[in-house]
Specification:
Layout (H helix, E strand, L loop, with lengths): L2 E5 L3 E2 L5 E8 L8 E8 L6 E6 L5 E3 L7 E6 L4 E6 L8 E9 L5 E4 L3 E5 L2
Parallel strand pairs: 2-11
Antiparallel strand pairs: 1-3, 3-8, 4-5, 4-9, 5-6, 7-8, 9-10, 9-11
Length: 120
């Protein structure tokens, strides 16, 4: 059974950097059959795809967030991470990490989500 667990601060001040980590169990982030994504949902809005990182470390980001987003991975810990710089209150959301099937680009496993609030 694959499980994903987000971790990181629940409160970030405006202009600071939001950093989250997703710990994966029951599956390897080194698998070429899967990619790993971050997705968020602001209050009262729909899901927003932020980006994806592949087993070879290559990453692709949403054009609207590309200038502020970076993702990385640590295969030794079976973790991947998100950094979002220069946050504003509009970045307040529930942040999810997810596993993506490389063959279909469909998400097959989600983390439970973590609330991040941007406020001074």
């Amino acid at each position: 059974q694959v499980q994903l667990q987000e971790s990181g601060p629940g409160l970030v001040k405006p202009s600071q950097t939001l950093s989250l980590t997703c710990t994966v169990s029951g599956g390897s982030i080194a698998s070429t059959n899967h990619a790993w994504s971050w997705i968020r949902q602001p209050p009262g809005k729909g899901l927003e795809w932020m980006g994806v990182i592949h087993a070879d470390g290559s990453s692709y980001y949403s054009p609207s967030l590309k200038s502020r987003t970076s993702m990385s991975r640590d295969a030794s810990k079976n973790q991947f991470s998100l950094q979002l710089t220069s946050v504003t209150p509009e970045d307040t959301a529930v942040y999810y990490c997810a596993r993506v099937l490389s063959s279909s680009w469909c998400v097959d496993y989600w983390g439970q989500g973590t609330q991040v609030t941007v406020s001074s």
